[in-house]
């Protein structure tokens, strides 16, 4: 049973999406059942990084969203229009929709979701927030038993990259923004990122899912990072904090009833908080709920590969549900068909590697006799068995012995053990006190 | 449409599960459709922390797994037997099963999953790994488009608690283990935790899901933390590492073909790695895949509330699929029924709080005239508006001014802004240079 997919757009995310679908090995078996039948592009002549037959390309986007053969329309063109109109037309035509378009969803979710509800189709948007980080589906499914109280997220990679560099280098905002633009981490017009508008789009989407209601995007308070001075980053450090652009959605119970706080602003995050350690272009979403407590989702917030990972996951989730539906929910023997993503699968045995064949770094603490050149001797002994050392720490004497701690480079465990046996047999080595693997 | 749930066991996780189901407000609307109709317990007389009618309690566990009215059997009794036999009997009787039992699944998944496949029922086990952390379902659904290359997890809370305290206090393993036992963080017989057997159960389950095959639990290499000395933790720190008990599953491609590395052992984790910052009883699972890159799931690895959060999520996921199936997949107007967890829902508008009503801490950097008592003056001015200060840093002069950085306690933004206006109007205050909220 094949599911037919129409792609609107073949930019970086669209290309990443097609690359996954054309290379199904070692992914979920259902990937093999997905077929890209049409790809909407602006120019038919542009060279492409994917090996798709020329016949699937078209400049007629309307023909994709109305094609009776297409099951799932994937909107990866971005921008408000024509993305919005095309999604609505796809929905009207009974297509399920997968989109990575946070701006269009944040602004038009009411219209789009109402149309989808009416047509009985799914609109999935995992890629719209946090790039490759699973967060939308976990909020919908894995945390659905919770009463969510607060979401705090680092959900804009550009500003997190700039703030991380400002902290690491002590530089000024303007200089690092200019450099980020030169490197492609920030756009020529950086407004949406540095003024917090992109993060506001995303927190509006997350809040709507977590708190189960419509959220007016224009009501999200947002403050960007343009005014953060190097002095503030230094003071924050001194006080035990790091400055991050956080997007916050929080349930607030007042005498007047319940309302939501929705805000994007620079925030001093305590060093002990899990969000304080999220650096560079990484994103993280910290969710608090009853009874789960605190959970965090961390990963790459953007990029072709990660975003395409989320897009294809959404396509597969729809295909799994369609497979059950089209199988008329029954197998030949009368038992119900199961969702292939949630069912137990364990058709083959995994071959397990013997521990000797694994490769890792090792930390070794050993006690040697207090002789000149003992570090050289240990290094040579390891070297003879192909084990090279990355760092060596020698400490003071312990009685007759000298304590030495070393970290090796990557080595096969079998070879490493041979070297260790050889060392143990040496008169000048009193004891191998510890051996611990290194990540 | 109500879904009937039978609970096997009413210990901490069972009680947490019942508490969620009996208190559906502000959770997913589907929680209201779940009804606990039977609870299997050892003693009918024991006082309970949940308000369930006496009639639902029974000591006859067989009567639960064979009850024709029950849709979903929830196994939260733990242990290998009779948990295994009851799950198999429930499956034979066409019940879907939700379990938190990592040991039984790690050992008997082949038998249990084969029976489930034959009977056409789901066996969901989100709570078996990582307590309340969504990781099983994200691996099955949100990351299904990926070719997973490696999973590295801190998936045993007891050992992570011990290692965290050893690092923070510089103490010895035996002392801290004894204290952890006294505090209830470690069991009287700590073998399963400190020797890595519990983590081995869990990585076997994760590997089976991530790599799509059967995993022989007995082939998992495991080494515990009994031999970790305070010296090793100090050397590791000196070298830029922290020692964690990691469970690793990794795809290894050799000339002989593909095999899996499966190992649990203490590991030196570089300080810059996201896993290095996972402390105390928290767990985290770090997943690497193509094309997603690196993602991490973080949260409470155990406890009644978090584990029950995962158990109820599984129950809801099954109920959602049953609702579609029983609705014969069609609504009255002919459009298909949608999975209520994945469908777009936005029936009500969320009331958004004005920013003035939000409560948070603030960091303020201000420049004042260089006069005696200026810190007292600033403190008094804030105090008059109900803003109390948590920390104050005063630095050297900047020209005619003195720079002062303060962090307030929690305060309503409206009141804080009034205080700030008042301060700005003072002759002795030259400039409010920065105002940044604090998490």
Structural class of chain A: alpha/beta
Q: In CATH, what is the class of the largest domain in chain A?
A: Alpha Beta
Question: How many separate structural domains of chain A?
Answer: 3
The helix fraction of chain A, in percent, is 25-40%
> Multimeric state of these chains?
homodimer
Order of helices and strands of chain A: EHEEHEHEHEHEHHHHEHEEEEHEHEEEHE
The CATH topology of the largest domain in chain A turns out to be: Dihydrodipicolinate Reductase, domain 2
Describe the structure.
Chain A is α/β, with parallel strands linked by helices and 439 residues long. The first copy, chain A, folds into three domains: 3-131 and 306-326, NAD(P)-binding Rossmann-like Domain (Rossmann fold), CATH 3.40.50; 140-300, 2-Layer Sandwich (Dihydrodipicolinate Reductase, domain 2); 355-438, ACT domain (Alpha-Beta Plaits). The first copy, chain A, has helices at 12-21, 61-65, 83-92, 102-119, 136-142, 157-169, 173-183, 191-194, 197-211, 230-239, 304-326, 374-384, 413-424; strands at 3-8, 34-40, 57-58, 72-75, 96-99, 123-124, 147-154, 221-222, 241-254, 257-270, 282-290, 293-300, 359-369, 389-398, 401-408, 411-412, 429-438. In chain A, α3 (83-92) links the parallel β4 and β5 (96-99). In chain A, α4 packs parallel to α9 and α6 packs across α7 (173-183). Chain A starts with a strand and ends with a strand. At the A-B interface, α1, α4, β6, α5 and α9 of A face α1, α4, β6, α5 and α9 of B.
């Amino acid at each position: 049973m094949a599911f037919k997919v129409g792609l609107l757009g073949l930019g970086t995310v669209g290309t990443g999406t097609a690359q996954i679908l054309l290379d199904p090995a070692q992914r979920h078996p259902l990937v093999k059942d997905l077929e890209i039948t049409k790809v909407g592009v602006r120019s038919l002549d542009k060279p492409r990084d994917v090996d798709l037959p020329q016949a699937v390309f078209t400049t007629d986007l309307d023909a994709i969203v109305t094609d009776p053969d297409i099951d799932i329309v994937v909107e990866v063109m971005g921008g408000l229009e024509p993305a919005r109109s095309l999604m609505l037309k796809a929905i009207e035509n009974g297509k399920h929709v997968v989109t990575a378009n946070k701006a269009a969803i944040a602004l038009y979710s009411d219209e789009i979701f109402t149309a989808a509800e009416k047509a009985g189709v799914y609109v999935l948007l995992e890629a719209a927030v946090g790039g490759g980080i699973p967060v939308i589906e976990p909020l919908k499914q894995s945390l659905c038993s919770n009463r969510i109280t607060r979401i705090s997220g680092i959900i804009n990679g550009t500003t997190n990259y700039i703030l991380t560099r400002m902290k690491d280098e002590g530089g000024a905002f303007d200089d690092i923004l200019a450099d980020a633009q030169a490197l492609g981490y920030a756009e020529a017009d950086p407004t949406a990122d540095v003024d917090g508008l992109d993060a506001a789009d995303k927190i509006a989407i997350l809040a709507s899912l977590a708190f189960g209601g419509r959220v007016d995007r224009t009501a999200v308070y947002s403050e960007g990072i343009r005014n953060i001075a190097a002095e503030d980053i230094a003071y924050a450090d001194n006080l035990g904090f790091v400055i991050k652009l956080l997007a916050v959605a929080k349930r607030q119970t007042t005498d007047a009833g319940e309302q939501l706080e929705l805000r994007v602003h620079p925030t001093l995050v305590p060093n002990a908080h899990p969000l304080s350690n999220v650096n560079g272009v990484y994103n993280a979403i910290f969710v608090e709920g009853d009874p789960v407590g605190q959970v965090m989702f961390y990963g790459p917030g953007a990029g072709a590969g990660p975003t395409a990972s989320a897009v294809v996951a959404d396509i597969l989730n729809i295909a799994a549900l369609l497979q059950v539906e089209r199988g008329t929910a029954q197998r030949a023997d009368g038992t119900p068909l199961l969702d292939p993503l949630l069912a137990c699968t364990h058709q083959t045995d995994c071959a397990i590697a013997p521990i000797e064949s694994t490769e890792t770094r090792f930390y070794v603490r050993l006690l040697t006799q207090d002789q000149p050149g003992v570090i050289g001797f240990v290094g040579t002994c390891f070297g003879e068995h192909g084990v090279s050392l990355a760092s060596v720490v020698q400490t003071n004497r312990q009685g007759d012995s000298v304590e030495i701690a070393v970290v090796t480079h990557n080595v096969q465990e079998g070879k490493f053990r041979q070297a260790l046996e050889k060392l143990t047999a040496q008169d000048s080595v009193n004891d191998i006190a510890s051996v611990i693997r290194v990540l």
